[in-house]
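Task: fold both queries, return tokens.
Query 1:
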Amino acid sequence: MAGPPPKPWPTGTVEQLEPLVARVLAPNPSPYTYTGTQTYIVGAEDRIAVIDPGPDDPRHLAALVDAIGGRTVAAIMCTHTHRDHSPAAKPLAEATGAPIVGCAPLVLDDSGPRADASFDRTYEPDRVLLDGEGMTGPGWTLTAVHTPGHTSNHLCFALEESGALFTGDHVMGWSTSVVVPPDGDMGAYMASLDKLYGRPDRVYYPAHGAQVDNPRQLVRGMIGHRRQRENQIVRILSEGPLTAADFVPRMYKGLDPRLAGAAEMSVTAHLLDLERRGLAGRSRDVWTGP
């Protein structure tokens, strides 16, 4: 997990990344959001799309309205409904008259360690996109790519004209995605990584951190990293019964203490996947080998 770049960060500033893509950084940095949530504006003419509007923060909403600049918003599109991604959809829709389009609504009681990982209970899409469905505007086409794992409702959006993929939290260059059960699912996450590895996307624009210019190389490395973690867990399990928390100090050397809970949930996600495959067992909170 990489540390954030030196300040100042371009919070609230419109950054033009390519002719059809601009980015606005929200003021919500944290150990889990890096420098903050990145909202993307797609389109170069008078009809645009907004991807991952971010937190319901008046400063970010004002920055987005300024960036839109009176243009028509064809759709406000959300990759998933964690609270750092979708809550601004409703006020932005009220400000622009745009429909909310994208992932399905999902509300769970989150018992995990992340304050920003509870689900957005205000999210009410006007249209849910299935895998392969999309939105169009002048010179742009965005196609939904279903990528469950980080959450069960996670979507990426492919910009067909430029080969860009907006990856939300599924793939990020600065960190691996946190997979938090019960909604987060490691088996589904790995299958979604395999799905992206088979695609020809030119560049990834994640919701946190820098763009990824070598997508397939990064995804291949992420798959390998997860397999290494899995093998590590199987090896530790062979030494005797353990709780999920017992794995963390043995697997994550030098871990920021603020991330210990997230690491435990990631281990739990791996253990649940191993259990489904007959490679681990448990009695209450204690895990054993098969």
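Query 1 returned. Query 2:
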Amino acid sequence: MKKRLYKSSTDKKVCGVCGGIANYFDVDPTVIRLIWVIFTLVGGSGLIAYIIAAIIMPDEM
């Protein structure tokens, strides 16, 4: 069985990107969200990456 990366439809705050990444790597979504916030605050690239991921990642079915 092949793992696929999808936006989460059940564990989402904004678009489900962090929830989907957490499901893919089998970690707590809060950890992914904290890492994403750190990237956003440190260099600002986290916000751009989140927007791109929200557009590119397919929705969970």
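Both queries returned. Flag for query 2: Helices lie at 17-25, 29-43, 45-56.
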